[in-house]
Amino acid sequence: MRIDLILQPDSHIQAPKNVLAFQQPNAKKQRRISERAAKLAAMGVLPRREKLLQLRSAAAASGLSVKEHPVANNNPDRAFYDLWSAGTPETADPYYLEQTKKKLVKRPDRLNEKPSVLPAVEVIAPGGSYNPDFFSHQDLLREAHEVELKKQKAEEKLARQLNICFISLNKHTFKEQVEGLIEEEEIEPQEPEGDTEDTVMGPTATQEKKTEKQRKKEKAQRIKDLQRKVERQVIDKQQQLFQLRSISASVKKQEQRTEMRQAQRKVQQEAQKSMPRRLGRLKFQTPDLDVQLSDELASSLRSLKPEGSILKDRFKSLQKRNIIEPRERARFNRKYKLKYSEKRAFREIE
Amino acid sequence: MGGLQKKKYESGSATNYISRNKARKKLSLSLADFRRLCILKGIYPHEPKHKKKVNKGSTAPRTFYLLKDIRFLLHEPIVGKFREYKIFVRKLRKAYGKAEWSGVQRMKENKPAYKLDHIIKERYPTFIDAVRDVDDALSMCFLFSTFARTGKCHVQTIQLCRRLGVEWMNYIIASRSLRKVFLSIKGIYYQAEVLGQTITWIIPYQFAHDHPTDVDYRVMATFTELYTTLLGFVNFRLYQTLNLVYPPKLDGQGEFSLKSECEEDYALESESYSEKLAALSASLARTVPSVEDEEAELDHFPAEGEDLEKMETREKMELEQNKQKKLFEGLKFFLNREVPRESLAFVIRCFGGEVSWDKSLCIGSTYDETDETITHHIVDRPTIDKQYINRYYIQPQWVYDCVNGKILLPVEEYFLGVTLPPHLSPFVEESEGDYVPPEKLKLLALQKGEKPQAEEDEEEEEEEDDEDDEEEDDQSEDEDEAEDEASLAEMEEKRAQGKSLSVKVTPGKVKPENRMRTEQEEKAEEKRLAIMMMKKREKYLYDKIMFGKKRHVREANKLAAKRKAHDDANKPDKKKKKKKC
Questions:
Q1: Is the pTM of this model over 0.90?
Q2: Which CDD domains is this protein grouped with (chain B) (predicted)?
Q3: B446 Cβ partners below 8 Å, 6+ apart?
Q4: Three-state SS annotation for chain A
Q5: Is A279–B45 a contact, with Cβ atoms under 8 angstroms apart?
Q6: Does the ipTM exceed 0.95?
Q7: Which residues of chain A make contact with B195, given a CB cutoff of 8 A?
Q8: What stretches of B382-514 show up as alpha helix (H) in DSSP?
Q9: Separation CA A175–CA A178 (nearest Å)
Q10: Per mean pLDDT, which range of A69-83, B100-114, B170-184 is the poorest?
């Protein structure tokens, strides 16, 4: 526009340049940096930014991601390889590997032993077949029946024990209430009988100090007792010779008893090995027997209704084999009781 | 007091154990993480012998771990991964709270994960150790694969379990190592022999289950994590031993025939291949193409320390096993809709048979119902409409009983509508003198090749004929007996009357001497003599011992008599039922 033409400078003398504006305080440094970058680029070494950029563009072109994401453990398409192949033996220094934690710590042999002798999968008794043989089914039913009997007995015992308390109370409450109300023939106190009988057990007065006589008497008595005992012992020892037969019989009996007890203890120890150990707060509760009653038995595989849950069975089996401790569902206990209050608006209604 | 006295609970068993909470604090992990770590590494709690000592005087029930085990856990690299995961969760929650969605996305992509390979290698240093422990893993994997994919436990875990289960079943089919099957009310028990180890596992039925609430799912999920990894590596190695391709691929021919069907009807494209594998109807591809050689007769060399006898028994056992592996070879089966398809397909293919099912039921059916060469048709209904002539219609228990009995049982007892014989457990081994159910006796007899006893023949005949015939039979028997008695009575009368009996003297016949029998008789004679010559006291003891030994036999006889009475009581009922049908 014309106004722009007018405003342009018409002198041929250029404006003075501000040298300070062109000065860069670290021009030498910058020059050195750019020279070095040029030298490195000539050799083929790229700065970090360029490298990453190239990586990103290559990854974008081929479709892979830049970072290597770890494959999740439960990915259904995960790959497996031969874990037990010999592989390449470690060539580095063992001390170096240990210190840099590249080599794993050796596992103690104690941990390779199984905590229980029971097998991992226990097959159910033959009476648990879907179409069982008569007698094996009856055996299984009998076992379940015995378990139920035991439970019932325990309950009855408890009820009986509680009942006794109440019964005794009942008896006595009536008598207590009635005491003093019924007018019976007055029981007159009997007169003390004559003093013909020598049944005086008067109060023994605190005696004075023992006299010398009494002391001597007591000492003589003591010595006599001791002597008698010693004599008796000597006679006993002599008589034992004649009692040899009975003595040997009693000794044999004792030995037998100890042997029996030892055997029983050994048997108990062996049984303990297959029992679940007490590993925590809760005791192990044996799972209920899976059994179908005679009228529940299926006539064909199609109409079979499965009994029991394998999940529970596996859980209990793990507890039985001492691999985990018995657990129950966690309860939610409130520290403070909940307070319920009506909203003021609701209170005003009615 | 001086400081040289020994204080209580400072040495000995009190310092060897550590309580669970203290251990957790030492590792600085949360309780769930600590439990997970213990399960993964195989660290179990111990019950100390003297609880009071270890618990420093109190008898409160606490869980104790060995201190050395916990110190060993400190060196585990995945402890660091647990801590990282905890931090990740915290950051993620913060990002969610601040609604930084890009941050959330970024973090989800970089979720920390850990691998369990080194733990498996450490716990099972050799392959055979891993194979020994694989039955627990199998039961858990099969159990998880039956769970519903609702999202309560990771769906990926369920898919992985299913894949590993199918791979295992395919391996068993290819190696023909299944030995025993047992259908119980809980599930199906299988037993196979892999690399010399007997492995037993249980598979639940494919019906819907209601899940129990008192099972800790997190613990079971951790076990499954460990076991899936173990099973994967075991599968890889097992496939290698058989020169099969891993991950498994269907054989060339099988793949082609299966592709020809319309695949979209059955599954998504991504899942159709795994579903075809799961159908178990085609064989697997091999890395080294195997040529079917004629089985050359191997020279038999006795192993170290074996006599000729043992070697012969071993050879016999091997021959029997080889025979058992080809039990269903040449037979063609067809499964109806209502039978458990997967279990039957697995068992049938394990013994060399061919199996198929209806096209609309599942992917992978190789031939149709109308195929003429089908030999057995497995049905579980009381009746079936169309019946082809040259095939047997049987109930599924026949297959399982054949497998357990190691021979092809007669098909008549398993026809439709017939009351099946009981399904006996192959895991029970009866010792001498125990009660053996009559069905098992029959089976043993069949195995030996003998015909069932004449009694049972008569029984069958009686059942088939009408009651009139039965009465006639009874009458004829009675008549025979009456005849014998009559002849004896005659002879007695004659003797009483003093007449000479009309007995003739005929030339004698030479009876062939049975040497074995005479030897046995001699031995029996000697034994009897020895018993007669014992002193009174010794005889008393001997009688007691024999009484105890024969107790078993007596009980068995009692049970057999009971069973007979039960059968006789039920015979008229059975007949009535039959007449009604």
A1: no
A2: BRCT_pescadillo_like
A3: B405, B407, B409, B410, B452
A4: CHHHHHHCCCCCCCCCCCHHHHCCCCHHHHHHHHHHHHHHHHHCCCCHHHHHHHHHHHHHHHCCCCCCCCCCCCCCCCCCCCCCCCCCCCCCCHHHHHHCCCCCCCCCHHHHCCCCCCCCCCCCCHHHECCCCHHHHHHHHHHHHHHHHHHHHHHHHHHHHHHHHHHHHHHHHHHHHHCCCCCCCCCCCCCCCCCCCCCCCCCCCCCCCCCHHHHHHHHHHHHHHHHHHHHHHHHHHHHHCCCHHHHHHHHHHHHHHHHHHHHHHHHHHHHHHHCCCCCCCCCCCCCCCCCCCCCCCCCCCCCCCCCCCHHHHHHHHHHHCCCCCCCCCCCCCCCCCCCCCCCHHHHHCC
A5: yes
A6: no
A7: none
A8: 397-405, 438-448, 454-464, 467-497
A9: 5
A10: A69-83
Query: Chain A window 253-272: which residues touch B at a Cβ cutoff of 8 Å?
Result: none
Q: Is the pLDDT assigned to residue A203 strictly greater than 90?
A: no
Tell me the two tokens of residue B314: 């071993």
Q: What is the mean pLDDT of residues A329-337?
A: 89
Sheet containing strand B332-335, strands side by side: B354-357, B332-335, B376-378, B392-394
**Looking at the complex, does the CB of residue A104 fall below 8 Å from at least one CB of chain B?**
yes
Mind giving me the DSSP string for B367-385? S-TT-TT--EEE--SS--S
Average pLDDT over residues B480-499: 63
Q: What does the mean pLDDT of chain B come to?
A: 82
DSSP label of B146: T
Under 8 Å between Cβ of B181 and B396:
no
Which residues on chain B are in Cβ contact (under 8 Å) with A135?
A: 435, 437, 559, 562-563
The DSSP output letter for B267 is: S
∠ Cα B467 B471 B476 (to 5°): 145
Q: Give the closest-approach CA distance of A134 to chain B in angstroms.
A: 8
A280: tokens are 């925590």
Altogether, the residues listed in chain A come to a count of 350
Residue B563: name the closest of B437, B423, B380, B388 by CA.
B437
The Cα A124–Cα A129 span in angstroms is 8
Report, as an integer, the average pLDDT of B203-212: 81
Which of B185, B436, B559 best tests the A interface by mutation, with the highest count of A CBs <10 A?
B185
Query: Which A-chain residues 69-88 have CB contacts (< 8 A) with chain B?
Result: 69-76, 78-84
With a cut of 50, say whether residue B214 has pLDDT above it. Answer: yes
Note the Cα A18 to chain centre separation in Å. 85
- pLDDT at res. A307: 85
B51-55, B294-298, B413-417: range with lowest mean pLDDT = B294-298
- CA atoms in the 13 A half-sphere facing the CB of A104: 16
Best CA proximity match to B364, nearest among B262, B222, B225: B262
What is the mean predicted confidence (pLDDT) over B274-292? 71
* Stretch 50-69 of chain A: residues touching chain B, C-beta under 8 Å: 67, 69
User: Which residue among A80, A115, A126 places its CB closest to the CB of B233?
Assistant: A80
Cβ distance of A101 and B422 shorter than 8 Å: no
Is residue B394 classed as helix, strand or coil in its secondary structure?
Answer: strand
Alpha helices for B55-126 (secondary structure H): 67-73, 78-98, 101-109, 117-123
pLDDT one-digit tens code per residue, A276-303: 998 989 999 898 888 888 888 888 888 8
- Write the residue in B154, B424, B563 that is nearest to A126 by C-beta: B424
Segment among A242-251, B363-372, B466-475 with least mean pLDDT: B466-475
Diameter of chain B measured on Cα atoms: 126
If DSSP codes are grouped into helix, strand and coil, which group holds residue B125?
coil
Interchain contact B209–A (C-beta under 8 A)? yes
B139·A310 Cβ contact <8 A? yes
Residues A229-235, mean pLDDT to the nearest whole number: 96
Which of A 27-46 lie inside 8 A of B, CB atoms? none
